[in-house]
Write a structure and sequence with these properties.
71% of the residues lie in helices and 5% in strands. It has helices at residues 2-8, 13-27, 32-46, 52-64, 72-83, 90-116, 120-124, 127-156, 180-195, 200-216; strands at residues 160-165, 168-173.
Length: 221
């Protein structure tokens, strides 16, 4: 990060990618789903690197390909640099942006593990720390729920309107833009999983297949 700041300065997409993903890796708890809520909203609403639908595409690819879900950071970093390449060819800039996002996401995690591993047994017996971690666990559930609502709104509705005021900031769906096919597909998936106890993989495969058929039929975009 110091090297990026020295070479490129603060007003550069690579500096922004490095700073954002480094900060995200250091201050977030709760695994990929908790991190993705923060990342999606910042990448879409604050930095404008990609659109909500593209964030959904990235999450879909991360869910259906081998490797940890958090690798969606590479997709976000790629698009951010690809669209703001500066003097570099867009494909090269995107590749470097994806690698930078991956590096800045994982290096702090390894540093935390390396520093904390020798003390992990002692930490388990620390009651105040365990109490704090229990509180964090409860908060993470709310963060994951926030992610589910954010993605659901941008899946079920084609348009949304940003609402700001009284300390609140959220995207309100435009009701007239509802996508009934997306809603029905989501409901079918929930019924399959919760009512009929269908497995996650078969449900994803069936929903993906139906989505592809609807797309080629011209029903959905």
């Amino acid at each position: 990060m110091l090297g990026l700041l020295a070479m490129l300065g603060g007003a550069n997409v690579f500096t922004d990618i490095g700073a954002f993903f480094s900060k995200m890796a250091v201050v977030t708890f709760g695994g990929a789903y908790a991190v993705l809520a923060y990342m999606a909203q910042q990448a879409v609403e604050t930095y404008g690197w990609l659109k909500p639908g593209e964030m959904l595409d990235g999450l879909g690819m991360a869910e259906t390909t081998p490797g940890p879900l958090i690798m969606v950071v590479q997709f976000v970093g790629f698009l951010a640099a690809f669209r703001h390449p500066g003097s570099l060819p867009p494909m090269l800039a995107g590749t470097l942006g994806g690698l930078l996002a991956t590096w800045c996401t994982f290096v702090p995690c390894f540093l935390w593990i390396g520093l904390g591993a020798p003390f992990i047994e002692k930490l388990r017996d620390n009651k105040p720390l365990n109490g704090a971690l229990a509180g964090i666990t409860a908060a993470v559930v709310g963060v994951i729920l926030n992610l589910a609502i954010w993605f659901a709104l941008h899946t079920w509705f084609r348009q949304s309107s940003p609402m700001r005021g009284f300390g609140l900031s959220f995207d309100a769906p435009v009701l007239a833009s509802i996508d009934l096919w997306a809603v029905m597909l989501s409901l079918a998936a929930m019924i399959a999983i919760f009512r009929f106890k269908a497995g996650m993989i078969p449900t994803l495969l069936v929903c993906s297949a139906v989505g592809v058929v609807l797309h080629f039929a011209g029903v959905i975009g």
